[in-house]
Amino acid sequence: MPGPLPSEVQERLRVTVIEQVLPRFGDNPKRAQSAAAKALDVDPSTINRLVNGRGGGSYDLVSSVSRLLNDPEEKILKGEAGGSPVRKLREIEGFADAILEARRRVLEEHSGLSALALERAADARVVPEPPRVTAGLIIQMAVVFQVEGNPQGQRPRKRKVTPKR
Fold first, then answer.
1. Which residue from 40, 48, 72, 105 has the highest number of Cβ atoms inside 10 Å of its Cβ?
2. Residues 99 and 53 in one domain
């Protein structure tokens, strides 16, 4: 069983969780911590202790955070940027407008698609890299991540939109 995280790794993990993980789960700190804990498959108290600088970090949590962010573990463990030369969708031109449009479409048409699936799609790396990100691309990637996280392997249902009269 591995020992505790070195203090500098614990601090990098804490900063990563505060700056990159929690903002994905909303503005309410308690709800964001609970949602992050669920996504990372850890107890909410683990996230709370980590955020407040009272421990809570482990090698398993480093691994879970790295998977959630689609980044190499070395980024937290060694402080190395490393990783792929291919950018995440969120780093490509047009992402800000595309994610807003994707969220709007999800609310109107894709009731079974989760906000977490959209965030995971934003961290996807696509080869060849698209010149511009579109809402459709983000939604397609989110459907893949939603199905991946769905034990039944079912695709989210599209909401039937009836024209207003």
1. 40
2. no
- Calpha distance 22→18 (Å, rounded): 6
pTM for this prediction: 0.59
What is the tens place of the pLDDT at every residue in 93-129? 999 999 999 989 988 886 678 888 888 888 888 888 8
- Our count of domains for the chain comes to 2
Classify residue 49 as exposed, middle or buried by CB count within 10 Å of its CB (0-12, 13-18, 19+): middle
| C-alpha R_g of the chain | 17
Read out DSSP for 105-117? Answer: HHHHH-TT--HHH
Q: Is 75 helix (H, G, I), strand (E, B) or coil?
A: helix
* Domain carrying residue 112: 89-148
All residues at 6 or more sequence positions from 151 whose CB lies less than 8 Å from its CB, including other chains? none
Alpha-helical (H) ranges within the chain are: 7-16, 29-40, 44-51, 59-69, 74-77, 95-109, 115-122, 135-148
Cα 67 to its chain centre, rounded Å, is 8
CATH of the domain at 29: 1.10.260
Q: Please indicate, yes or no, whether residues 133 and 111 belong to a single structural domain of this protein.
A: yes
Whole-number average pLDDT of the chain = 82
**Six-digit token pair at 116?**
């977490």
